[in-house]
Each structure stands twice: as structure tokens, then as C-alpha cells.
Amino acid sequence: PDWPDKGDVILENVSVRYATGLDPVLRDVNVRFKAGEKVGICGRTGSGKSSLTLALYRIIDTFQGRILIDGVDISHVPLLTLRSRLAIIPQDPVLFQGTIRFNLDPEGSKTDDELWQALEIAQLKPVVSELHMTLDAQVTEEGENFSLGQRQLFCLARAFLRKARILVMDEATASIDIKTDKILQQVVANAFADMTVLTIAHRIATILDADSVLVLSDGSVEEYDTPSNL
Ligand code: ATP
Ligand code: MG
């Protein structure tokens, strides 16, 4: 099967910075996220949570240590491969201008049935049907015709179609209506039950539900333990 088929993530002495000459924003981080584990990541603003996701995508430079996914050092993986195999859902995602089909499946490799199934799993079928939309309906510029929570659900549908083993979810800090928020939690819990899920957590419920919680403080690991031990 395609790499990564398990979703085991190891950070070994990882230090990360935005550019040469700048101070590191992650310092000597050693953690292992086991395959299938649900991890909540928390810490104050500026502690390095988003930087950790950027390092996984190699958007910023790991200048010391290494990140292994299923035993492979990601610095040896071609960028396009790496980025297509990890699913990262940003806090405030924008959709592409184009059809729903294109937004779900930019490579055009899925059947209509698969696309509808993904919409169903992401609980977007009622949304799309209510708007009398087909797969070829246009998403307006940056997805403004969908709410923030719905845009995150579209990203989850895309991640599901890609069969990504690793999902990184940056929970929205902006207000999402309670119903959509519940749906988001459910979709992540159900559709990604077997996957490794790292959630940058802004909600206490996410932290309590996690298998383990990583607390970052000023770029270093402050705690990494089960929620009940914290
Ligand atoms: P928040 O909870 O506010 O999202 P965070 O934990 O995600 O915070 P990061 O965005 O990872 O924090 O920021 C960690 C450090 O990296 C901060 O000191 C920040 O100033 C710095 N930083 C973030 N983006 C850049 C950038 N583009 N260039 C240089 N430094 C940056
Ligand atoms: Mg952040």
C-alpha cells in the first residue's frame, strides 16, 4: 500500500524556524503520535501549535532533528507526495473557485458515487441538496456561500476521499453554530476513527476526548500525557 499506511508520527529532537537567523519556534521536541491515536494539541497563543503543522508539511524548516512518518524521514519525501498524503484542515479554510466536484477531487480521479458518499460522510448532503446543488454547482469565490464550519466539512470530505492516514485539524476559534460544531466533532470521530488525528484544540471537550494531550509552551513540550493525568 501507499506510504503512509499506518500513520505513525515521530518527532526526534525537532527544532524548527521560519528562516535562517530567526529564533526557533519549536525547540528540541520529542514526541510520538502512535498510529490511530487522537491527540489534542494545546498551549497559549504563539506556543508553536500551528508551526508544528507547518513543519509536518515542510512549509517551514526543520533545521535540527527529524520527523518520521511510518519510519520514513519526511525530508526525503517529495513535497507533492508529502502534502497529498497528509490532510491538514486550517482554522478558516477557503474553498477553490470552481465546482463542488473540483473542490472535493481536484485530481478528477473519483466517481460521482464516491463524491456523494464523501458528502454524506461529511454530513454535507443535506446542505448541498437544500441548495438544489449538483456536483457541478459552483462554489463562489473562496467558498463564501458556505459557512466556516461547512468549509471545514468540505475539507474533511476531501481528506476522506484521499484516504489520508493522518489528519491535522486546526479547530476554528471563530464562532461556529453549535449544531455545525457537533457535526464536525462527529465526522472527525466517525470517518477518521482509524486514522491518526492531531487536533489543535480550542475546545475543552476535544482535550477531554483525546487519547493524549500535548501541551506546548514557548516552542517546547511542557506535558504529553493522557487527559486524566494532566
Ligand atoms: P495561536 O494559538 O495564536 O494560533 P500558535 O501556537 O499556533 O498560536 P504559532 O503560529 O505556531 O503559534 O507561532 C509560534 C511562533 O512563531 C510565534 O512566536 C510567532 O510569532 C512565530 N511566527 C509565526 N508565523 C511566523 C512567520 N510567518 N514568520 C516568523 N515567525 C512566525
Ligand atoms: Mg495557530
UniProtKB/TrEMBL annotation:
It comes from the Eukaryota. It comes from Saccoglossus kowalevskii (Acorn worm). The gene is LOC100374047. The chain holds residues 528 to 757 of 773 of the full protein. This is ATP-binding cassette sub-family C member 8-like. Coiled coil: none annotated. Residues 9-230 form the ABC transporter domain. It is found in: Membrane.
